[in-house]
């Protein structure tokens, strides 16, 4: 009995020593630095107008035509001489060029500027294997990882290396696969890009290899009405 107790004491002491060594190893292990703040460059896509945005259109060659207008739910603005003109999905430079061409039919040498004055609500949808799927207001320019954080973080079943982002930032629908795994976090999420209004961030349970399957199952069938409607019909807004 005495030998058994002595052996037990030796084992317990060895266990504590092992725990201490492990703790020291943990203390000495390199700690991954947090991902850097999002940076911007000349390659960052230009902002595109959406319904609810307020725009000042100053016509220098005809000051009486200067207006501050709001992009309507149909994506258009109402302007004197021109009537309803599409502004949604256009950058400030693109809208400028469009208005110069339209006013050329009424003015000899139209000179104007297009200046954003205020921005409407900026919503994104976060779905899939996250704690609180739903529609969220972007407090600032954020990336997919920060959007998942708004939605309460990943579920244990999430496939973090294959997060999908559905976007129309370039005027056409596109799907990008983003790696949000711990390994990518240690690298600062090298392929993360700022989200745009109405982007969809979807965290799958397993790898999705076909974009058409994703569109069918997770966009048209799973998204709220306003988001699926936007992506189904946005291509028709060029007219």
Please describe what this structure looks like.
By secondary structure, this protein is of the alpha+beta class. The longest helix is centred in the N-terminal third of the chain and has 27 residues, at 2-28. A 5-stranded mixed beta sheet has the order 7-6-10-8-9, with helices on one face. Strands 2-1-5 form a 3-stranded antiparallel beta sheet, covered by helices on one side. It is built from 6 helices and 10 strands; from the N terminus they run αββββαβββαββαβαα. It has 2 domains: 54-118, wza like domain (wza like fold); 123-238, Outer membrane lipoprotein wza domain like (Outer membrane lipoprotein wza fold like), CATH 3.10.560. The protein is elongated and about 65 Å long.
Report the order of strands and helices. Answer: HEEEEHEEEHEEHEHH
Which class do the helix and strand fractions yield?
Answer: alpha+beta
Radius of gyration, Cα only, in angstroms? 27 Å
- Work out the helicity level: 25-40%
With helices defined by DSSP (H or I, 4 residues minimum), what is the helix count? 6
Output mean pLDDT. Answer: 77
Largest sheet: 5 strands, mixed
Distance N to C terminus: 92 Å
The order of strands across the largest sheet is 7-6-10-8-9
- At CATH level 3, the topology of the largest domain is Outer membrane lipoprotein wza fold like
